[in-house]
Each structure stands twice: as structure tokens, then as C-alpha cells.
Design a protein that fits this description.
The complex is a heterodimer of chains A (about 60) and B (about 250).
Chain A: H1 2-6, H2 11-49, H3 59-62
Chain B: H1 5-9, H2 13-45, H3 62-86, H4 89-121, H5 130-150, H6 155-169, H7 172-182, H8 202-235, H9 239-246
Helix pairs in contact in B: 2-8, 3-4, 3-5, 3-6, 3-8, 4-5, 4-6, 4-8, 5-6, 5-7
């Protein structure tokens, strides 16, 4: 088993490479999830805020 | 010329949002499963390399993350170009979503490359090496794209200006690929596209390709999730979005 972890003396390189790759994957999943959550949250806030229909400008008013 | 219906649908934010919602779990689930299987196979089952020993097990993550970084740049450039020419906002949303993921994977390729270089070449980093420099330039193209976006308050203007940078920078992608053939590099030439077929036996080639598929699917999973966020931000309080939220979207 320790032979497996030592990777023929290259264990430090192999395991840190895999570890960093795993960390990058986890960070990316977390970032994508956080971005989606906050976007939906803001949209939800916007939707409830706008529930009272705002007065739309009429064509006449725009002229 | 009459374009097919699905082509027009791909320009519609609600359609794409729902499509992403349906596809994302499959891409993520299959992608992560392939990464788990491929890692186990590469670290435990596959034999060590006859010259490089066990350090060569980095070959199951390093070329794959580098490839995903380059693919992300092509997605970024093509999407930004389409958005610029045909003024499709959704295409710009795809471009924005691809950039940070590509930057992360390129960073990962540089780090795993350094960790492979140390036991193999005797150095983590070599200034002036064509492969290392062109790959580092890819990272700076992603970061430059994102930094340039940050300089604009107006999103439409940011979309158009950064699209030019994105499209121009795509020339770097073939330069990365051919750098090991055009110039002298410490980096080994392609194992997969070697003369006379892949220079690997099946017990190494299978996990090698499984990891390519795993990272690729994982990239598109992350891309779709970011794209959904980008669509929601850009659509503001559109009616379809309000209905979607009322239905109880997560």
C-alpha cells in the first residue's frame, strides 16, 4: 500500500497534481452553483418587487 | 435559405434555459462518473511508463485539462464572434460563461505540467519554452478577456469590445498545439496524434480517453450552469423568467 502512495518516489508530484485538479473541479462546481443561486435570488427579488404593475408610458406620452 | 426550427430556438433564452436544465444533470453525472473511473484506472490499474515510471500517471489529467482550456477558448471565440456578427445576446452569454472555466482549466494544466516537468525535465518551469509560453498566454487571454469586461459598466458594449479580443486571440490555439513540432521544446510531442497512431498500449489509452470524455462533459456541465445564471442576469424580469420562478425553480 505504501508502495502505491510513493509512486516509485514520484508520489509528491503525482498526488499533488491529482489533488490540485480535484480542488479546481470542486472550486468550479461551487462557483457555478453560487453564481446561479445569486442570479435566481436577485431575479426573485426583482419579480416580487415588480408585482404591482408599473404604469407603462403610452404612445402619446412618449411623443 | 430557410433555417431549421432548432436553429432559431437556440437564440431564445427561455428555450435554452430549459434545455440546459434538462441536459446539465446528465452531463455532470456522466462526466464526474467518468472522471472517477478514469482516475482509478490511471492511478491503480494502468502500468507505469517504461521510461518515466509512475510520474507519467499525470498523463491522465494534464493533457485533458490543457485540452479543455483550449476547447473553452474556441467556444469563447466562436460564441463571441457569432454574437458580434449577428448581434445575438445569447451567444455573448455563452462566451462570458466559458471564460472563467477555461481560465481555471488552463491554470490546472500549467500546474500539473510543472509537477510533471520537475521529475521528468528537472525543472518546474522554463521561460521561453514555446509550449509553456503559449499555454501561459492562453491563461492571460482568458484573464485579459475577463478584466476587459470588468472595465465596462454597459454590458452590450462590453460584449462587443471583448468579442474582438476573443476572436483575435484564437490564433493562439493552433500555436499551442503545434508548438512542440514547430520549435524546440522540452515538452514531448503528442502521444495521441503520434505518427502511426497513438503511442500507447490499450491499458493506458483507455483511461487516457475516458479522462478526456470526463473532463469534456464536466466542462459543458459547468458551462450550462453558468449560462443559466448569465441568462437570468440578462433577462432581468422577463415574463417567462417570472413564470419559471413561480413554478418553483431551484
Amino acid at each position: 500500500m505504501s508502495e502505491f502512495f510513493s509512486m516509485g518516489g514520484h508520489g509528491a508530484y503525482v498526488w499533488s497534481a491529482y489533488g490540485i485538479t480535484l480542488a479546481v473541479l470542486i472550486v468550479n462546481v461551487w462557483l457555478a452553483r453560487a453564481k446561479r443561486r445569486s442570479a435566481l435570488q436577485r431575479a426573485r427579488a426583482l419579480a416580487t418587487q415588480d408585482e404591482v404593475p408599473r404604469k407603462q408610458p403610452t404612445v402619446r406620452q412618449l411623443q | 435559405m430557410k433555417l431549421p426550427r432548432w436553429f432559431h430556438q437556440l437564440g431564445s433564452p427561455p428555450y435554452v434555459y430549459r434545455l440546459a436544465e434538462a441536459l446539465a444533470p446528465w452531463l455532470g453525472g456522466i462526466g464526474l462518473a467518468l472522471l472517477a473511473v478514469g482516475s482509478f484506472w490511471g492511478l491503480v490499474v494502468a502500468p507505469p511508463d517504461y521510461q518515466q515510471g509512475d510520474s507519467a500517471r499525470i498523463i491522465y489529467i494534464h493533457p485533458q485539462t490543457a485540452y479543455v482550456g483550449m476547447m473553452a477558448y474556441v467556444v469563447l471565440a466562436v460564441a463571441a464572434g457569432i454574437g458580434y456578427v449577428w448581434r445575438i445576446k445569447l451567444a455573448h452569454a455563452v462566451a462570458v460563461s466559458a471564460a472563467p472555466i477555461g481560465a481555471w482549466f488552463t491554470f490546472c494544466a500549467l500546474v500539473t505540467g510543472a509537477l510533471w516537468g520537475r521529475p521528468t525535465w528537472g525543472t518546474y518551469w522554463q521561460w521561453g519554452d514555446p509550449r509553456i509560453m503559449s499555454e501561459a498566454l492562453l491563461l492571460f487571454l482568458f484573464l485579459g478577456y475577463l478584466a476587459l469586461r470588468g472595465a465596462f459598466d454597459d454590458r452590450d458594449k462590453a460584449d462587443r469590445v471583448t468579442a474582438i479580443l476573443a476572436v483575435v486571440g484564437v490564433v493562439n490555439v493552433p500555436i499551442i498545439h503545434y508548438s512542440v513540432e514547430w520549435w524546440n521544446s522540452l515538452h514531448q510531442t503528442s502521444t495521441l496524434f503520434a505518427d502511426g497512431g497513438p503511442a500507447m498500449t490499450a491499458d493506458m489509452l483507455v483511461p487516457f480517453l475516458i479522462m478526456f470524455a470526463g473532463f469534456t462533459l464536466t466542462f459543458y456541465w459547468l458551462l450550462l450552469r453558468r449560462l443559466q445564471a448569465e441568462i437570468v442576469e440578462r433577462e432581468g424580469s422577463a415574463r417567462w423568467l417570472r413564470e419559471w420562478l413561480a413554478e418553483g425553480a431551484r
